[in-house]
Amino acid sequence: MPALITDLLERSARLYPERRAVGIVGGPSLNYSELHRRVGRVAAVLARTGVGRGDRVGVMASAGLAFFDAYLGAAWLGASAVPVSTRLAPAEVARQLTDAEPRAVIVDSDHGETVSQTYSNGTLLEHDSPGFRRLLASVDPAPATALPEDTALIIYTSGTTGDPKGVCLSHAALTFNAFVTAVAQEFRPSDVYLSATPLYHASAGLRVITMLVDGQTHVVLPSFDAEGAMSTITDEGVTTTIMVATQLQRILDSPGFDPESFASMRLLLYGASPTGSDLVERMMESLPCSLYHGYGLTEAAAACAGLGAEDHRQGIGTDPSGLSCGRPIVGVDMKIRGPDGREAPPGEVGELLIRTPKLMSGYWRQPEATARAIREGWLHTGDLAHQDRQGYLYLAGRIKELIISGGVNISPSQIENTLSHHPEVAEAAVIGLPDRLWGEAVTAVVVPSSGATPTLEELAQWVGNRLASHMKPKRLVLTDRLPRGDTGKVQKHLLVERHAGDWADS
Question: Does the pLDDT at position 381 exceed 90?
Fold first, then answer.
């Protein structure tokens, strides 16, 4: 099995030289022969700036060819690509680049000024400039010098806890991830994959590498809107894609929604953010393609568990706590560690531990954090979960989100799932806020349905009729939207910060 990203690219270029490798909607398109030659030249340009094995190459740009150049060009040399979110404030950009210390940073014209004003220790390469194109045309491909253990990507975690860290993923981990993902999702050489989410995030960015596994075509939608996504799927003959709940909701709610626009699709993946059961039911009723629900995290090169198409068709993987994330994919072991430190029996909630050859090498320059996260070969995810007797995984929130009220541990996810079925609730997030009597009070932060004004008493009774009495919300916050990160995950630490003093005198 190849253990280098460059091996995957070279193989596809040799076997499928004329097949389209990359297509940017509204932009350039490259076949595999062209992509292979281009990446070698990008590597040569990077080498001219002093990039070599062990160095870092930053990339900050809108979704497009810049990410393929940065990810694959750095990997060619044994260096690491460091994607930077375009949604970060300048101070956050500075903090991330200063931490990573890239020798070169690839930018587009929209983000060059932000990088130049926040980081001055690396060469700035403006990807969409005539100068960069001339540089590419003036060099011969560089020799590939990477080794399997070299870090190829450093992806900073999304920071839902407010503490992002650089996750180091090696060639060996990323190529293993490509193969096991191909098995789990039944890749075909004829697949056309659509990236509709930002390429700086793991769930989308890793596909730059994964879709090289056997000559697949990778289409990139630079910015998302429902009508544009549907027309791209039709025009490009897209067979598979990943979307988050917000995107799917917008498509289904669009006045121009047409199930026929998904006629070419064989598999729609969702799960980068929590997806309510009502939305899943709408997708099953409205879309002609199969569904795949996944769970993963950056520290394990994304995909770790999946609820497949047949599971969806048979209604497998549901219980009172909500929709399952499925079972571990091939190459991934999981266990649940109970409060006593032992492996938990089926149905008991505990911390999810993962063991796989595609684990991160560690957190960038944080050996202590790495040692806490990986112990005896197992990644301690910080996610609370339980498994049923068939091995189906059900998430129950984060350990740091666990609410301790009156000495009782309460997992927010069950309450959120129950509230999501209330007719006057569009979205809900449950947090614990300081309380003199209870220690923490179960607090529901709710986006009401259109025109609705649910009360605390109504929602508490709704929860109390379906769950244990100690899980009833004691406080209610109504809001027009929930704060979310790049992938749609609710940033609960911001909700806690925002509302911690609301009941200070109670």
Answer: yes
* Cα distance between residue 108 and residue 182, in whole Å: 31
Q: Which residue bears the tokens 């740091």?
A: 400
Closest CA to 489 of 357, 383, 344: 383
Pairwise CA distance, residues 446 & 453, whole Å: 10
Nearest to 462 by CA among 395, 426, 415: 415
Q: In the numeric block, which tokens belong to residue 321?
A: 């706590």
All residues at 6 or more sequence positions from 465 whose CB lies less than 8 Å from its CB, including other chains: none
Q: Which residues contact 241 (CB under 8 A, 6 or more apart)?
A: 193, 194, 195, 196, 233, 265, 268, 269
Q: What is the pLDDT of residue 269?
A: 96
Q: Could you say which DSSP state residue 420 is in?
A: T
Q: Spell out the residues 6+ positions from residue 35 whose beta carbon is closer than 8 angstroms to its own.
A: 9, 13, 21, 22, 68, 72
Task: Give me the torsion for CA of 375, 379, 382, 385, rounded to 10°.
Answer: -120
Q: What is the pTM of this model?
A: 0.87
The CA-based diameter of the chain, rounded to the nearest angstrom, is 71
SS3 41: helix
What pLDDT digit, counting tens, does each position of 437-449 carry? 888 899 999 999 9
pLDDT in tens, 139-186: 999 999 999 999 999 999 854 445 689 999 999 999 999 999 999 999
Task: State yes or no: pLDDT of 273 exceeds 70.
Answer: no
Contact assessment for residue 48 and residue 55, using Cβ atoms and an 8 Å cutoff: no
pLDDT score for 284? 94
Structure tokens at 411: 């997992």
Residue 330's Cα: distance from chain center in Å?
A: 19
Which residue has tokens 């929209």?
110
Q: Tell me the pLDDT tens digit for each residue of 387-419.
A: 999 999 998 888 888 888 877 778 888 899 889
Which tokens hold the place of 18? 């004329």
Please report where in the chains the tokens 């190829």 appear, as a residue.
152
CB 107 within 8 A of CB 82: no
Nearest to 168 by CA among 140, 119, 202, 209: 202
**What single string gives the DSSP state of each residue in 398-441?**
EGGG-EEETTEEE-HHHHHHHHTTSTTEEEEEEEEEEETTTEEE
The two three-digit tokens of residue 202, written as one number:
């793991």
Amino acid at site 8: L
Whole-angstrom CA distances from 153 to 50, 58, 224, 389 are 18, 10, 25, 36
List of residues 6+ apart from 437 with CB closer than 8 A: none
Q: List own/partner pairs for 123-127 with CB under 8 A and 24 or more apart.
A: 123/49, 123/50, 125/45, 125/49, 127/61, 127/65, 127/66, 127/69
Exposure letters 190-226 (e unless 16+ CB within 10 A, then b): ebbbbbbbbbbbbbbbbbbbbbbbbbbbbbbbbebeb
Please state, in angstroms and as integers, the Cα–Cα distance from residue 336 to each residue in 299, 347, 359, 376, 392, following that order. Answer: 17, 10, 17, 15, 12
CA angle 269, 275, 279 (to 5 degrees): 90
